[in-house]
Amino acid sequence: NTSLQVNVTFLHMATHDSKNVSKTHLDTFYTTFEDIKHRKFDGMIITGAPIEHLPFEDVNYWPEMTEIMEWSKTHVTSVLHICWGAQAALYHHYSNGKFDLPKKCFGVFSHRLSDPTIQLVRGFNDEFNAPVSRYTAVSYDEIIEEPRLQLLSNSEDAGVFLVISEDKKHIMITGHLEYDATTLADEYNRDIAKG
Questions:
Q1: Burial grade of 46 (CB within 10 A; 0-12, 13-18, 19 or more)
Q2: Which of these, 50, 138, 130, lies nearest to 101 by C-alpha position?
Q3: Catalytic amino acids?
């Protein structure tokens, strides 16, 4: 409840046919990059997708995604990248790849802040719990060695969690702070049903 006016524009990939959302719904409530690329935005969220097993270049909308990420450099003040979106940003902007995990990293894990003085994490506890659900990860060493990136939190069990670019424009979260109370249970039951 705030007096701040927030206007949200939902985008979907024009080069991808969704299997989980009807075309009618997308046409009614979403737009495409072509329709908004002339505009500027205060913020953008690039979400995850259950495609992390694919190399980035094999994702059918990867060219469109890279065009959006390039456009965001000049048209968006700050971009929040979540899960696969974080891995995509690290790969596209910083050449940091992902790697397969021996098994799915799934659950609520303890994470530790590396620098609690950074404005983005002020108010966080030095240690906090966060949901993670992924089959791939990014390299801790590559993040630490990249001078344009700063690791803000990490988990002994789940690895890199929160990374910010030196210019504070890109925020990458490899987990799911946005999950509701039952989201992990829903994913668990979905995965069990799939065998």
A1: buried
A2: 138
A3: 83, 176, 178
- Can you tell me the distance from the alpha carbon of 15 to that of 9, in angstroms, rounded to the nearest whole number? 18
SS3 184: helix
**Per-residue pLDDT tens digits for 143-161:** 999 999 999 999 999 999 9
Residue 151 and residue 22: Cα distance in Å, rounded? Answer: 38
What integer pLDDT is reported at residue 185 of this predicted model?
A: 94
Specify the DSSP element, H or E, that contains 70: helix 62-75
Sign, CA dihedral 146-152-156-160, equals: negative
Say yes or no to pLDDT of 1 above 70: no
Q: Give yes or no for a contact between 63 and 27, defined as CB atoms under 8 angstroms apart.
A: no
Calculate mean pLDDT across residues 126-148.
95
CA distance 83 to 134: 8
**Residue 89 and residue 172: Cα distance in Å, rounded?**
8
DSSP string for residues in 12-32: --TT---SSS-HHHHHHH-B-
The CA distance from 70 to 133, in Å, is 27
